[in-house]
Design goal:
Chain D: This is Carbohydrate ABC transporter permease. The complex is a heteropentamer, with 1 copy of chain A, 1 copy of chain B, 2 copies of chain C and 1 copy of chain D. By secondary structure, chain B is mostly helical. Helix content of chain B is about 75%, strand content about 0%. In chain B, strands 1-2 form a two-stranded antiparallel sheet. The chains are: A alpha/beta, B mainly alpha, C alpha+beta, D mainly alpha. The structure holds adenosine-5'-triphosphate (2 copies) and magnesium ion (2 copies).
Chain lengths: ~400, ~280, ~350, ~280, ~350
């Protein structure tokens, strides 16, 4: 048995699918265990500290690995059997070192989803595949007014991934930056826009984590979320929901891919098998099976078959439209932050909570949080990443 | 005489157990709260206290405990009294009332969220009764008060059974002759409750209060389910620092704060509800 | 006005009948003593009057009100429990004050009453103690004080002095009688001490196996037992019984001696005499001495008359030894006769 | 007046008609309060995903077993169930075995260090477990306790022990010392007197704290997730990610989680209230 | 061999001294009765012997072994508790069998002993009941049966018959005495019933306020009290005391009457006489009658002699009324004298 210890595919159905559809094809039997970050991290830390362990392969998001970098085995020697892996992701997998700390495993991004009923209220002349934030706000305003309540949904709950929205969508769309222009005037405008949007956002959003649920119950009609967290809505009622790209701002249509990877801890009981399993995860067939199971897209070049689940078809099209848009402004996951990744995210979350939820003064909050951000960047010494211009030394917060 | 050493002997297994499996790891964690790279510092406490959420989380936790625990005690006392006055069917009722005992906070959070959600049962009832035509939002970020009430209700539902069983077990040990004497000397049901049940139940009440208060300071799952990020509590913040922010030092500092207020309240209960040795049964 | 009237009351515990149809009236201000063997139902009867037990049948009236459906606190009673039931969480003072506080009396009045009854019961110096710090007799006195302090219309006492030494008891007894008479309280008092019963009671109700056998003045109960049980139960030592065979002229033959007796259509009835109503005399009943016990001024001689147990209380001057045979003559006016079947008295002398 | 027991009869006079009605109504209301959420959970567990997501929600189940079957079909469910019961069982035994003697000592003796011990016991409950999990896991991995039922039970025992100690403490305080003394004079050692006289009298309370221990262990997720790999408990195996699963599975999972615990409480119910027939003293 | 020897034992509860330096030896197989006022420390002493209370000082020896450091079960004792301490969760049978099971006796032997002692205590028909279903007296008998069934070397009984009616008590008393004598058990027996004490005891130990005042044979304690307290405590009613002023020729003047008395370097001592040792006579003490109470064969006359309380038990034939003055003559050989300060006996007659 190889123990595959993962923070991904946690919902029970996905876990089950991973076991039955993805990993059953491997030559060895694999024990796939998905858990919350808390137990996941605690367990692997304990094994590393104890110097022995049972975990063979780790699966996690880019951010999950940052703290563990020192104890992950270099995977550059893994024989991938000729599959070509997305370069950017492979680069991210080095975690700022010379070694391949993790292999990219699957990717996803955030898109918008809407109930078809909502389309009737689209503002005059707006193209759903090329929305701007202003149009989105106008749309939501009409919806709220016409249907008697806010209909926009945003995953701002404790398990929601809201920080990625601010980092990869809101900031790039308004400031063409994630870090550098954190407290710029443009940023202030971005937050004000977001506040405007928030007025038409379902107030219960602060406990939402997976927008598919609220879409299905029709608590919200339009939502922003991770593709994997919208999948259930598309799969259950493919005819009722549409997917479309995130909106654009003055500096383009900011968006951000999310990447999950697999890594081998130095305490893995059987290094060879672990590496073999890592390689197996990158096989095109496995990648397609994974897509079916988890709605995370492949990180290797493959031809998708036609019989993919509805969610894949629908969100795949939206992703294509988003990345292929003229004003596309892709950003990258934070890099080189080490174990400060969590605090980095917290800066954005705090800013959101203070400005939007607590209603504090935008300027003051930005100034305040910029200090925190700067401290983090300096402590980590991480250079800037896209869409910020590469920097010498720590990425500056202007 | 064996009298002297016996209590220590009786405590020995539990003590040894706790030393190995609690005190030792606890000391390791506690050390993290007050050290940085091996040297003593209060920096982490400062970081914690300076964080803008700290005082909100702190007061939310205290307020929740202050609201939930007394209500639970009152409800459990009511239930226990009803149970003791019941004839046939007592077992069944008691079983029903202790059902929530078996329900984890995780499950309780799910159930209560399903009730208070916008498309949840509460709105379903209200709308089928025609009281509302649009689902009302109960748990929105502006509805701090409703969230608070919802959390209190859920906690009340989930964790009153613990108090109930402690009290029922305690009441079972009060000799009925005392009630009879009180009755003859003019005490009505209420007076009997206040003058006989409550004082004689003091050890049980003390136990229930201490345990419940400590647990109340650790509320998390239900609050997170119902309140999301709107109702930060200490335990939630501890999680955030430990796992999201990956700062074990500050997380440990939070944990010590929880520990400190728990012990403070415990001491208060131990003091105020102490039964003098000579006044025991 | 607190007359107690018990009408046709019965109490069953499952199969077991603790009280069979009891009828008893206790006059206002009367001091009624309940006497009876252990387990005969005295406590049960008190508890029914107090309202702590629901009768299986019958009615209880107090002061002209039917009370069976009233809770104890509305019956205007106070009670001393056989096992005291002193509240362990309260001091002696608060125990005694308990009922008074229920009546919301002013503190000064409470202090006054508690102090007074505590003094009466000689526990004035124990007021700050808890029941765990008291001796058995002290607890019992607290229980009595608690009831007295209530100054109720009716007081029910279940063996209130059983754990006290003779001296204290004597004293308490006198005090109780005085206090209760003064406060015009109707009292039902359970005791197994006959001296106590005799000296306290206005009337004595003798119970046997869940029935009231006789309720009359003490001297009447002592001298003219209504049933054989009463004679055999009351008196320490109790009455002696011997079989009497019919002789001629309406006289009866007892252990070879002839006595005048009642007219009865029986071949055999029971002859009864109290041990202290015997004296050695030539024409007495022949008794074989088995045991001689000194009782201070007297001796108790346990003898055998024609194979029947026969006791005599004699002056200690009389020298007796085991194995002796003495002739014991009964005082004629003290001889009683009982029907052997109904066990009821055959009263020729009245 | 046909009520059976003496107590009921004695108080019967107290509760006259309106009061009696109120009494019954309160009981019914409280039962409804406890049962309604459970009912909703069941309704949803037995409904199809569509029904679960509908609004207004239906209050009768659709009797679709799909969601429940989904869980029951998991490979290794039975094994996980067995592990859960095993771990909870060991926890129960350990918690009572270590806790009851300590509770007894606290209730019967005055000795130095009593206060300290009480605080130490409570600390285990007042300190957030997730922080302790790391050092404990390291310790367990090193000593080979990792991934064993006993290892996990040990962690759960630290959670359950405070309950066991405090509840038994309050129970023992309700038993007159004199009964024990009588047993000593009749030839019992302290231990024998304890289990022949005291234990039967406090059995309901002991059963109650055993139930707590069981339920605490049953519902505990964090440590179970960290400390068991091959020998997963049911919670860790199926349900630790319940809160991020689709709604219909949340409910079904909740039900799967709750039902065995309820069965357990039901099974021990008669011990919980076994001694009620016997009057005290 | 189970001699009990208590050496210099004291017990303090906080400030309060319940026992001051007690010395007492109970011979093997002796039946020792403890008598004393309520709260004088009887129960405390028993508990110390049983090992339930640790003495604040002193030693306890049983059967030649020092036992203060032994737990109760190793002392070879059985005890009847003042408030019974019947196990509520066990039936009467199991209560009685409790100690026997601890000794791992075979079931047949247990059955035999339980049945036997239960019969002895007249609770044979209650064996299946729980204590909540028993009357006070029945519980008490269970407690006695439980101790007897143990057949211990030493048995300690704390008012074991206090809740029984006179008749049953008389019977139980005889049974107890028989059984204990037969089984050669050393017994310490607390009672407040003096008749019981007199009839059961080999020796009586009289306690007063935590001290043993006299330990002697019953008749000795009754006739020759070692201290004024003993005289005033024992006897029902107790001894009368009058002040005696020194007259000439070693005689003493009491209420105007002269008596021969002891030589004493005092101006005033106390004259004492038991109420039953008085008879009306011309040369008697002038007594003013206050209350007359019938006591069956006798009357108890409570009088006043020179302002002092004075009781007499007289034949009921003597006609007395309130307010009468009678002359009461003491039996000369029964007069006792006490030192007014030490309160100890001044014994001229021995
Ligand atoms: N735990 C205690 N704390 C303080 N005083 C106590 C305690 N126990 C007993 N006493 C006191 O010690 C004295 C002796 O008590 P003990 O029970 O031995 O009396 P006793 O002779 O058995 O009386 P009784 O005949 O009333 O049962 C009493 O005055 C009592 O109040
Ligand atoms: N709850 C009960 N269940 C069954 N029998 C009972 C119950 N309570 C009392 N009894 C029986 O009823 C009878 C009367 O009991 P009660 O307590 O009235 O006696 P008592 O006259 O007070 O005796 P004592 O002088 O011994 O206190 C007894 O034989 C007793 O065993
Ligand atoms: Mg009785
Ligand atoms: Mg005593």
């Amino acid at each position: 048995d190889i123990l595959f210890w993962s923070t991904q595919a946690k919902p029970v159905e996905e876990t089950q699918a991973m076991r039955e559809q993805v990993l059953s094809g491997f030559s060895e039997s694999v024990d796939y265990q998905a858990s919350d970050t808390g137990p996941w991290l605690t367990r692997i830390q304990a094994e590393l500290e104890a110097g022995q362990g049972t975990i063979g392969l780790l699966g996690g998001l880019h951010g999950d690995f940052t703290t563990l970098a020192d104890n992950l085995v270099d995977l550059s020697d893994v024989d991938l059997g000729g599959v070509s892996v997305n370069d950017t992701f492979q680069q991210l997998g080095r975690l700022g070192t010379d070694e391949q700390k993790y292999l990219p495993w699957m990717q996803a991004t955030y898109i918008m989803a809407a109930n078809r009923k909502a389309l009737d209220y689209l503002p005059e002349g707006a193209d759903i595949n090329a929305l701007t934030y202003d149009e989105l706000i106008a749309w939501m305003k009409t919806l709220a007014e016409e249907t008697g309540g806010p209909k926009f949904g945003f995953p701002a709950g404790p398990k929601g991934l809201k920080h990625r929205f601010f980092q990869g969508y809101l900031y790039p769309s308004y400031t063409d930056s994630m870090v550098t222009k954190f407290r710029s005037a443009e940023a202030e405008e971005a937050w004000n826009k977001f506040k405007e949007l928030w007025a038409y956002t379902n107030p219960a959003s602060t406990s939402f984590a997976f927008m598919q649920e609220q879409l299905l119950t029709e608590e919200v009609w339009v939502a922003f979320d991770h593709t994997a967290r919208l999948a259930e809505a598309f799969n259950q009622r493919p005819d009722d929901f549409v997917a479309f790209p995130a909106p654009a701002g003055p500096t383009g249509r900011g968006f951000m891919p999310v990447v999950a990877g697999v890594a081998v801890p130095e305490t893995a009981p059987d290094m060879e098998k672990a590496k073999a399993l890592a390689a197996y995860m990158l096989k095109p067939e496995t990648q397609i099976a994974t897509l079916r199971a988890t709605n995370f897209f492949p990180v290797v070049d493959v031809e998708l078959p036609d019989d993919m689940p509805a969610a894949v078809r629908i969100s795949g099209a939206a992703i294509a439209a988003m990345s292929g848009a003229e004003d596309a402004n892709p950003g990258l996951l934070p890099m080189g932050l080490g174990d400060l990744g969590g605090k980095f995210n917290q800066v954005y979350n705090d800013t959101f909570e203070r400005i939007v939820l607590a209603g504090q003064d935008v300027r003051a909050v930005l100034d305040d949080q910029a200090e925190a951000l700067r401290a983090i960047m300096e402590e980590a010494g991480a250079p800037c990443w896209a869409p910020d211009e590469p920097s010498e030394g720590a990425c500056p917060v202007e | 005489m064996e009298q002297r050493s016996l209590p220590y002997l009786l405590l020995l297994p539990a003590t040894l157990f706790l030393c190995v499996f609690f005190i030792y790891p606890f000391l390791l964690v506690a050390w993290q709260a007050v050290s940085q790279d091996g040297s003593f510092t209060l920096e982490h406490f400062r970081t914690m206290a300076d964080h803008w959420k700290f005082s909100t989380a702190f007061w939310n936790t205290i307020l929740l405990a202050m609201a939930v625990v007394p209500l639970q005690l009152a409800l459990a006392l009511l239930m226990a009294t009803l149970v003791t006055r019941m004839g046939a069917g007592r077992d069944v009722i008691l079983y029903i009332w202790t059902i929530p005992l078996g329900i984890s906070d995780l499950a309780a959070g799910i159930i209560w969220l399903a009730i208070f959600e916008q498309t949840g049962f509460l709105n379903s009832i209200l709308s089928s009764l025609g009281l509302i035509d649009q689902p009302t939002t109960w748990l929105g970020y502006q509805d701090k008060a409703t969230i608070f009430i919802a959390v209190v209700l859920a906690e009340l539902w989930r964790a009153t059974a613990i108090v109930l069983v402690i009290l029922v077990a305690g009441m079972g040990l009060i000799p009925k002759e005392y009630y009879e004497a009180a009755e003859v000397f003019g005490a009505g049901p209420w007076k009997r409750f206040v003058r006989i049940t409550l004082p004689l139940l003091r050890p049980s009440i003390q136990t229930a209060l201490i345990l419940r208060t400590i647990l109340a300071f650790e509320v998390f799952a239900v609050v997170a389910a119902l309140g999301g990020t709107n109702l930060p509590v200490l335990m939630g913040e501890t999680y955030v620092w430990q796992f999201d922010l990956q700062d074990r030092h500050v997380a440990a500092a939070y944990a010590l704060v929880i520990l400190a207020i728990s012990i403070a309240f415990t001491l208060v209960f131990l003091r105020t509800l102490r039964v003098p040795k000579e006044a025991r049964i | 006005m607190a007359e107690i009237s018990i009408r046709n009351v019965a109490k069953r515990f499952g199969d077991f009948t603790a009280l069979h149809s009891i009828d008893l009236t206790v006059e206002d201000q009367e001091f009624m003593v309940l006497l009876g063997a252990s387990g005969c139902g005295k406590t049960t009867l008190l508890r029914i009057i107090a309202g702590l037990e629901t009768p299986s049948q019958g009615e209880v009236w107090i002061g002209g009100r039917r009370v069976d459906h009233l809770p104890p606190r509305q019956r205007g009673i106070a009670m001393v429990f056989q096992n005291y039931a002193i509240f362990p969480h309260l001091t002696v003072f608060e125990n005694i004050a308990f009922g008074l506080r229920m009546q919301k009396l002013p503190q000064a009045e409470i202090d006054r009453r508690v102090t007074r009854t505590a003094e009466l019961m000689h526990i004035g110096q124990l007021l700050k103690r808890y029941s765990g710090q008291l001796s058995g007799g002290q607890r019992q006195r607290v229980a009595v004080a608690r009831a007295l302090a209530m100054e109720p219309d009716v007081i029910l006492m279940d063996e209130p002095l059983s754990n006290l030494d003779a001296l204290l008891r004597l004293e308490m007894r006198a005090e109780l009688k005085g206090v209760l008479a003064e406060s015009k309280t109707t009292t039902i008092y359970v005791t197994h001490d006959q001296v106590e019963a005799m000296s306290l009671a206005d009337r004595i109700a003798v119970m046997n196996q869940g029935r009231i056998v006789q309720a009359a003045e003490p001297i009447e109960v002592y001298r003219n037992p209504a049933a054989r049980f009463v004679g055999s139960f009351i008196g320490n030592p109790p009455m002696n019984f011997l079989p009497a065979r019919k002789a001629d002229n309406g006289s009866w033959q007892v252990a070879g001696v002839r006595f005048d007796g009642p007219q009865a259509e029986r071949e055999e009835i029971a002859f009864a005499i109290r041990p202290e109503d015997l004296h050695p005399a030539e024409d007495g009943l022949p008794a074989k001495v088995r045991v001689v016990e000194p009782l201070g001024p007297h001796v108790l001689a346990t003898c055998e008359v024609e194979g029947h147990l026969f006791r005599a209380v004699l002056d200690s001057d009389i020298r007796l030894r085991r194995g002796d045979t003495v002739k014991l003559a009964p005082m004629p006016q003290r001889i009683r006769w009982f029907d052997p079947e109904s066990e009821e008295s055959l009263q020729p002398h009245r | 007046m046909t009520t059976a027991t003496a107590t009921a009869a004695a108080t019967a006079a107290d509760i006259r008609r309106p009061a009696r009605l109120l009494f019954a109504a309160t009981i019914v209301l409280l039962c409804a309060w406890v049962l309604a959420p459970i009912y909703l959970l069941t309704v949803n567990a037995l409904s199809s995903p569509d029904q679960v997501n509908a609004f207004p929600k239906s209050f009768v189940p659709g009797f679709e077993m799909g969601s429940i079957t989904f869980f029951l079909q998991f490979g290794g469910v039975l094994r996980a169930l067995f592990n859960s019961i095993l771990v909870a069982g060991i926890t129960m035994v350990l918690a009572i075995g270590l806790g009851a003697p300590a509770g007894y000592a606290l209730s019967r003796f005055e000795f130095r260090g009593k206060g300290t011990f009480r605080i130490m016991v409570l600390m285990t409950r007042a300190f957030p477990l997730p922080l302790l999990a790391l050092p404990l896991a390291v310790m367990f991995i090193r000593t080979g306790l990792d991934d064993t039922a006993i290892g996990l039970a040990i962690v759960h025992t630290t959670l359950a022990l405070p309950f066991a100690v405090l509840i038994t403490f309050s129970l023992f305080s309700g038993i007159p010392v004199e009964l024990e003394e009588a047993a000593w004079t009749l030839g019992c050692t302290r231990l024998q007197a304890f289990y022949k006289v005291v234990l039967p009298l406090v059995l309901p309370g002991i059963a109650a704290s055993a139930v707590f221990a069981f339920v605490i262990s049953w519902n505990e997720v964090f440590a179970a997730a960290v400390l068991t790999i091959e020998n997963r408990t049911l919670t860790a195996f199926l349900l630790q990610n319940l809160d991020v699963s689709p709604l219909h599975l949340k409910f079904a999972g909740g039900a799967v989680l709750v039902v065995p615990a309820l069965i357990f409480i039901f099974a021990v119910r008669k011990y919980l209230f076994a001694m009620w027939g016997i009057a005290n003293r």
